[in-house]
Structure formats: structure tokens, C-alpha cells
Design the sequence.
């Protein structure tokens, strides 16, 4: 019999707070983690079209993790380490009692070590000192530095993978963590999403792509406004989220708490365009349908959707179109929210943070508000989207995550019923 | 200093280079999307080159008004005040 997979531990590092409790309380209260973009040293900041971001201010990894190991990885990996430390403690797992080869780490990351990348580009091209590149540059810049650092931190010798599909990266990390356990390669897989790339080049790149909000520079907390008529692009964010996944048998053996079951997953490509989704939403609808079939759940059974909803003019409409297409009448009944209204878009971390929200929503029966939903776009508006927190029992939750490169992912979470 | 009469040709030349087509085949009335086949990303790439060439910055809020080649030309004639660059933006 195929093993069932459950979530037994959660960890968050976000612009709304470090720690699941801080994050969740702020999310339910509808607080925004978006603020004025911090100055990039001597960069002329007025040259950036967008001036807002969901940054984690004052983060010092040394406050959370002792020793030099955390100082020697880039910021995205540091965020991942802190989130994972919390998730492991939350799960109650004693990794030194586990078979290390049956414990894996799968990280979703979109950008990699962008802080060290910019620092060292500057050293080579501006200062013309190619002989002074820091020795740790390669281990820090590589996209799998976070999964490597986490394995070392945890002593996890099982599958150690990094998946990079832009903004859907860590939805796939959850899905592939589930598959690694289902196929018998591991008992426990730590699924992580992490990105921290609010640096001059990357931020400028998203500005040039005209993907970011520019109309709310004086009102940062208003800038991320999924489904609102006045949305004008996403807000770049940063963060990390970790979910400890394990087989039900393994969780039961150690009498672990269970937040939810990871019941279904689908991964597709629209094979359409590098940055623009198909405007009929049919591929997104098919992705959601595949994930629900995998979970043996009908659309009418879904209570809650954590939408990808980045606050871009096109993306939000297409996703709602897809939801209406698949869910038919249920689209007017299902609760929907946009975690990015609170955090901005954390890119590779977004799927994991959304997964954490799904697990908490099922566990607590509370749906966090979609903030700035004060002027609904008629093309996006559905009764289940609310600017207020909703109390609602959720048996089935669906997570959507879409990434540049025509990439789509959906993950289905269910309330765990023995 | 570019003159107003240069601008339409320079913009059509920029488009021709971007699309790999003959400049004569690009008409002022051509719509960027429907006639020339530029999707949203390609339009942004083109406008980036034009911003460079004419040393202007086109705010996001002005993009919806730039539907045809002539719209872009008129916009640049109205806003460009600085010196010329090459149509490709490389010079």
C-alpha cells in the first residue's frame, strides 16, 4: 500500500515575523510585511521604478544558530537554516535517533546566493581584482548551497536535492518530498523554500521586466493587492519556510503531532511563454485537476485555495479564470486567499510558505485575510475572497504556485483522518 | 540633437532590427501586438531599447497608451529632450 504522507513540523522566517506563531498571528491580523525598499549603499535609489519590498529587517543569523557554519552561507540559506531549525523542533524529531540515510532534504530556491554574487561581481569587474574573489564564493553562490548546509546541520544523509523553477520552486519541493517518501526512498523529508535576492541587480531586473508595483511607492503596505482593481504588479519579498514531511507510519511510531496530510501533487508546463501565462487559464485548471485526482478529491470537496495571486494585472485574472473553469459553482463557495498580499512575493520561498499556511489553516480552522482587497476587480472577485479573517472548517486545501518558464504546480492538503 | 523628423525612422529602424525585418515593411499604423506580433515581454524589451536610444523613461502607467508604432513615435516626440543614441540602444 502506498504510504500516506503527513506534515509534522513547521518553520517560518518572514517579513511578518520570525517563527510560525509570530507569522501566523500577524497574518490573521492582516498586517503587511511590505515596507519602503532599504537603500542599497550608494545606489541612486530613485532610479528604481519600484520602491517597496517585503524585507526581513534586522535579521542576524547568529541570534538563532551558533557557530561559523551559518555565517558561511548566503542569506537565503541562512533563512532556510533558521526556518528548518524551528520546524525540526516543532516536529519533535530526534534526528540523532533516525536512520540518517532515510532522512532527506529538498529545497526550492529561485535565485540562489545573490548577495555574494553581487559582492564578488563588483570585486572582479569594478575593482578589477579577479585574484581576490573570496574562496567561499562558489560554495555560497550555488543554488544547492542551502540544501547542502541543511543536510550538514541536520545530519540528513538521504536524498538531498534542490529544485529551481522560479516562483513555483518550493511547491515542487513539497510535492517531490512527498514522492520521495511514497516511493520508499526516505521516511522523513524536510521540504524547504528559500529566497533572499533583494539586491541591486535582481531588484533592477524585476523593475525592467515591469513586473513590480510602482504606483504605491508612498504607501508600501498597500502595494501588494492581489485581486484588487488597482493592483499594478508584485512586490518583491524574501523569506523561508520549512515543512517536515514523514510517512504516516513513521509519524505514528513516534506519536508525532500531525498538522495535515499531503494528499496530492501535480507538476506541469504550459509550454507557452517564459513569463506570461496562457490567458485562458486552461493549463492552470488542468494542473489543479491533476493534483486533485492524485489526491482522490473532487473539486466540490475543496474548501480552501491558497492562490498564487501575485498582484500582477494578468496573473490574478488568469488564475481566477482557471478556478472558475474547474470548480464551476464551487468557485463561489470555496474560500480563497493570497498570502502574497501580506508578504509580497518571496519567489522560491512562496510555495513552502503557502504550504505552511495550508497546514495551519486546516489545523486551526482560520483563513487569513487577503489584505488590500478593498476595491475588488470584477474579473477577480469571488465571494470566498475576504479582507477579513474567516473562521471555517477546512477539510481540503489546494495550493497553487506558478513560475517563470511556463511552470505550474498544485499541491493538495487534507485534514488528517486516521 | 535628434530632430522630430528623425524620430519616426529611428523608431521604425529599432523595430526592424528587433524583429529582424526590413524597415520598409513596418508601417506607422502597425499595432505592436496584433500586427507585429510582439507579446508583452517583447514589447517591454523593445521599449527598453527605445528608452536607451532616446534617453527617456517610460513609466508603467503610460504603457497601455502605446499600441501602435505611431503611438510610440508621438510619445517619444513629446518626451524626448536629450541627445540621440543609436536606434538599437547599443551606441
Sequence:
Amino acid at each position: 500500500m502506498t504510504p500516506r504522507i503527513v506534515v509534522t513540523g513547521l518553520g517560518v522566517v518572514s517579513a511578518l515575523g520570525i517563527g510560525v506563531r509570530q507569522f501566523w498571528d500577524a497574518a490573521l491580523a492582516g498586517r503587511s510585511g511590505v515596507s519602503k525598499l532599504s537603500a542599497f549603499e550608494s545606489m541612486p535609489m530613485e532610479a528604481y521604478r519600484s520602491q517597496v519590498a517585503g524585507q526581513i529587517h534586522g535579521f542576524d543569523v547568529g541570534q538563532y544558530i551558533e557557530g561559523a557554519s551559518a555565517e558561511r552561507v548566503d542569506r537565503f540559506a541562512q533563512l532556510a537554516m533558521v526556518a528548518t531549525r524551528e520546524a525540526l523542533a516543532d516536529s519533535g524529531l530526534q534526528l540523532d535517533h533516525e536512520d540518517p540515510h532515510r532522512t532527506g532534504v529538498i529545497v526550492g530556491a529561485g535565485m540562489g546566493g545573490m548577495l555574494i554574487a553581487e559582492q564578488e561581481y563588483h570585486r572582479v569587474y569594478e575593482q578589477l581584482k579577479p585574484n581576490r574573489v573570496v574562496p567561499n564564493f562558489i560554495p555560497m553562490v550555488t543554488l544547492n548551497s542551502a540544501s547542502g548546509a541543511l543536510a550538514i546541520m541536520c545530519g540528513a544523509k538521504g536524498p538531498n536535492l534542490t529544485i529551481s523553477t522560479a516562483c513555483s520552486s518550493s511547491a515542487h519541493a513539497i510535492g517531490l518530498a512527498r514522492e520521495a517518501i511514497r516511493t520508499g526512498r526516505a521516511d522523513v523529508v524536510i521540504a524547504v523554500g528559500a529566497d533572499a535576492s533583494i539586491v541591486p541587480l535582481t531588484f533592477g531586473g524585476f523593475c525592467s521586466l515591469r513586473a513590480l508595483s510602482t504606483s504605491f511607492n508612498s504607501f508600501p503596505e498597500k502595494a501588494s493587492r492581489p485581486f484588487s482593481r488597482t493592483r499594478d504588479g508584485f512586490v518583491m519579498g524574501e523569506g523561508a519556510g520549512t515543512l517536515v514531511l514523514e510517512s504516516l507510519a513513521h509519524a505514528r511510531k513516534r506519536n508525532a503531532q500531525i498538522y495535515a496530510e499531503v494528499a496530492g501533487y501535480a507538476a506541469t508546463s504550459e509550454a507557452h511563454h517564459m513569463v506570461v501565462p496562457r490567458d485562458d487559464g486552461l493549463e492552470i485548471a488542468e494542473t489543479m485537476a491533476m493534483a486533485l485526482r492524485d489526491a482522490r478529491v473532487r473539486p466540490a470537496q475543496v474548501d480552501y485555495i491558497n492562490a498564487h495571486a501575485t498582484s500582477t494585472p494578468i496573473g490574478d485574472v488568469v488564475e481566477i479564470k482557471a478556478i472558475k473553469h474547474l470548480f464551476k459553482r464551487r468557485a463561489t463557495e470555496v474560500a480563497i486567499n493570497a498570502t502574497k498580499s501580506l508578504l509580497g512575493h518571496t519567489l522560491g520561498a512562496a510555495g513552502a510558505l503557502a504550504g505552511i499556511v495550508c497546514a495551519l489553516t486546516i489545523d486551526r480552522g482560520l483563513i487569513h485575510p487577503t489584505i488590500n482587497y478593498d476595491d475588488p476587480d470584477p474579473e477577480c472577485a469571488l465571494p470566498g475572497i475576504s479582507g477579513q479573517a474567516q473562521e471555517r472548517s477546512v477539510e481540503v486545501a489546494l495550493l497553487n504556485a506558478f513560475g517563470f518558464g511556463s511552470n505550474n504546480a498544485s499541491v493538495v492538503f487534507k485534514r488528517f483522518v486516521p | 540633437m535628434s530632430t522630430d523628423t528623425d524620430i519616426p525612422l529611428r523608431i521604425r529602424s529599432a523595430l526592424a532590427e528587433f524583429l529582424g525585418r526590413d524597415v520598409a515593411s513596418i508601417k506607422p499604423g502597425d499595432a505592436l501586438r496584433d500586427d507585429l506580433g510582439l507579446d508583452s515581454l517583447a514589447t517591454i524589451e523593445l521599449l527598453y531599447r527605445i528608452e536607451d536610444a532616446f534617453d527617456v523613461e517610460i513609466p508603467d502607467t503610460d504603457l497601455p497608451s502605446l499600441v501602435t508604432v505611431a503611438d510610440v513615435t508621438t510619445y517619444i516626440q513629446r518626451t524626448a529632450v536629450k541627445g540621440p543614441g543609436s536606434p538599437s540602444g547599443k551606441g
Notes: The interface with chain B takes residues 49, 208-210, 214-215, 232-233, 273-276, 314 of chain A (CB under 8 Å).
